[in-house]
Amino acid sequence: MKKYVLLSEVVKIGKGQTNSNTTGSWRVERPVWNPQTCINCMLCWVSCPDGCIILSKKDRVSGIDYTYCKGCGICAEVCPTKPKSIAMVLESIAQSTKEPELIDNIFPS
C-alpha cells in the first residue's frame, strides 16, 4: 500500500492547451536555478503562472522550461532560501553564457 502521494498526481499545472503561449524574443530577463541551494519547497512551481518549473519523476525541481517562461520573476521572488536558489538574469547575458558558468557567476559558493 502506498503511504504517500506525489504532488504531481494531485495538482496539475501545465502550459495550456496549445503551443501558442511560447515565449518569443521579447523576454528581457530569465530565471536561473541553482540546484545546490534549492530546498524543493515547491513555492516556485506553485507560483509560476505559466507552469515552467520542471519537476523530476520524484517531484523534485529539476529545471526551468525557457520555451514557455515569460521572465516575470515570480519564482525568484517567492524563493525562500538565503541566498536565493533562483535569480533573474538579463536575457542577453543568459544567451551568451553556458548554464554552469552562469550559475557559478550568479550564485556565490
In short:
The protein has 109 residues and is of the alpha+beta class. 25% of the residues lie in helices and 16% in strands.
Keyword list:
single chain, about 110 residues, alpha+beta, Alpha-Beta Plaits, two-stranded antiparallel ribbon, 5 helices, 4 strands, about 15% strand, globular
How would you explain this protein's 3D organization?
- The protein has one domain: Alpha-Beta Plaits.
- It has five helices and four strands, in the order αβαββαβαα.
- It is globular.
- With 109 residues, it is an alpha+beta fold.
What is the topological layout?
Elements: H1 7-10, E1 29-33, H2 43-47, E2 53-55, E3 61-64, H3 74-78, E4 86-90, H4 91-95, H5 99-106
Antiparallel strand pairs: 1-4, 2-3
The first-to-last residue Cα distance is: 42 Å
**Shape, per Cα inertia axes:** globular
Low-confidence regions: none
Q: What class do helices, strands and sheet pairing give? A: alpha+beta
According to CATH, what is the class?
Answer: Alpha Beta
SS element count, helices: 5
Beta-strand residue fraction: 15-25%
Q: Give helix and strand order, one letter per element, not per position.
A: HEHEEHEHH
